[in-house]
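lol forgot to send this yesterday, sorry. struct tokens for the thing we talked abt
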């Protein structure tokens, strides 16, 4: 068990580089089975979920090698020896994103067996839209005792209208359709930037896809994919947003290198409306909250991209708890994403949850306390609270936080924070 010990009250100052995006890297690793060749993936974040996905790929018969270079961490994945259609069940529960493998393995081997990933801390998280999309492509899918079996001699392109713009379902269907016969059109597709990164990687492989980033993605199936692909994983926009929020909540000045304005617009809007100053520079985004009076913002609602990201909701609510006045934040994507607010209230915040809305009364100060991370972003929010609080904060169960932030304490220390990681490393499990 490891904890973060934080002595709050220091305004963060300085610059940091954002690491590769977990949510882009996971589907890209799954997609690597499609070409049965070698993928060199640069800027791969060093996170538990990624490590688990690599272990799954190895157990499926692929070769995996990692290497540090000037661009960070590179992973070499050779999927030419991948012959097993059974995703190892002991690893599926560790990383929810193993569900991304269903589409690419089915498209490559004609069948796949995978355990149902189940719900997690932030919600029930069904996968009906993934399965509906694959069935529409011609897969026969059975579900028995928590095991999903999907098979198809051939996948056939078709038009698929998603009932909801699910990120994972869009990616899974895109990947399966790469090798289908004919053209697949996904309507009401999710538009997240990580889907665009997946499209970029698949393009390099020779896939014929257009429209990622819009609500209509078109995939023309092809049997010819390149055997060697090199791709650099995009920077993590949620980690970037978290670092901007850390600068804001401590009244500091931070330069977040690798942060892209375009992918963070609603977060930047919220921070500037509250009173922070944000500038776009060549290398990334600069935020200043120094000597500024920070005020409430009007009603905020989490929505699929380009709306306000649910993965930034806990961090922004924490920031708003130190802004003057009453803010309200409505969570429309996951049903159980306010758990952290109880911990935050122990630190002196005044947050009331009314159905799916947090009513946040700004307080003068937060005070250090012993709190527990219950999920990834909620845990990151508690760290932000600790950075701004008076006195010492202990954040327990940081295994959740470390699923999405590579060496968070090092990033924050680079900005002058007084934070230590204490205890020993234990197993972490991935569910976002
Ligand atoms: C991805 C991100 C996660 C982010 C989320 C929403 C990854 C690895 N994770 O998760 O960090 O919080 O997008 O931006 O990229 N749903 C269904 N049926 C389905 C699929 C989804 O009902 O078949 C529901 C979910 O329960 C949820 C909503 O749709 O309420 C959004 O889920 P989705 O967009 O699929 O999120 P994930 O891909 O799981």
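and heres what i got for the seq, position by position
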């Amino acid at each position: 068990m490891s904890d973060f010990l934080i002595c709050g009250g220091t305004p963060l100052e300085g610059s940091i580089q954002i690491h590769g995006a977990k949510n882009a890297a996971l589907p890209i690793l799954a997609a690597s089975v499609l070409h049965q060749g070698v993928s060199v993936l640069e800027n791969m974040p060093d996170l538990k979920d990624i490590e688990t996905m690599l272990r799954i790929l190895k157990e499926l018969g692929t070769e995996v090698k990692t290497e540090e270079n000037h661009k960070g961490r590179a992973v070499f994945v050779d999927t030419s020896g991948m012959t097993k259609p059974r995703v190892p069940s002991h690893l599926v529960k560790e990383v929810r994103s193993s569900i991304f493998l269903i589409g690419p393995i089915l498209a490559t081997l004609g069948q796949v067996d995978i355990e149902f990933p189940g719900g997690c801390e932030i919600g029930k998280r069904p996968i009906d839209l993934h399965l509906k999309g694959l069935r529409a492509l011609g897969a026969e899918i059975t579900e028995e005792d928590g095991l999903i079996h999907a098979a198809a001699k051939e996948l056939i392109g078709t038009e698929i209208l998603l009932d909801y713009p699910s990120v994972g379902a869009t990616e899974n269907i895109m990947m399966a359709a790469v090798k289908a016969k004919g053209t697949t059109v996904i309507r009401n597709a999710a538009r997240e930037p990580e889907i665009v990164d997946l499209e970029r990687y698949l393009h390099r492989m020779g896939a014929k896809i257009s429209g990622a980033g819009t609500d209509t993605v078109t995939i023309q199936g092809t049997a010819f994919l390149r055997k060697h692909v090199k791709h650099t994983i995009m920077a993590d926009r949620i980690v970037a947003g978290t670092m901007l929020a850390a600068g804001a909540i401590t009244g500091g000045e931070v330069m977040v290198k690798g942060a892209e304005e375009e992918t963070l617009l609603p977060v930047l809007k919220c921070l500037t409306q509250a009173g922070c100053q944000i500038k776009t520079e060549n290398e990334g985004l600069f935020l200043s909250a120094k000597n500024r009076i920070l005020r409430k913002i009007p009603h905020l609602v989490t929505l699929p991209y380009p709306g306000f990201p649910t993965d930034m909701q806990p961090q922004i609510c924490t920031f708003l708890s130190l802004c003057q006045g009453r803010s309200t934040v409505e969570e429309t994507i996951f049903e159980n994403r306010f758990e952290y607010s109880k911990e935050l209230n122990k630190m002196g915040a005044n947050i009331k949850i009314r159905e799916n809305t947090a009513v946040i009364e700004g307080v003068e100060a937060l005070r250090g306390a012993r709190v527990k991370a219950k999920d990834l972003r909620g845990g990151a929010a508690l760290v932000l609270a600790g950075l701004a609080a008076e006195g010492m904060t202990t954040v327990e169960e940081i295994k959740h936080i470390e699923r999405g932030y590579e060496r968070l304490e090092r990033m924050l220390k680079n900005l002058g924070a007084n934070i230590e990681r204490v205890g020993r490393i234990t197993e972490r499990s991935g569910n976002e």
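DSSP finds 13 helices and 23 strands in the chain. anyway ping me if u want another try
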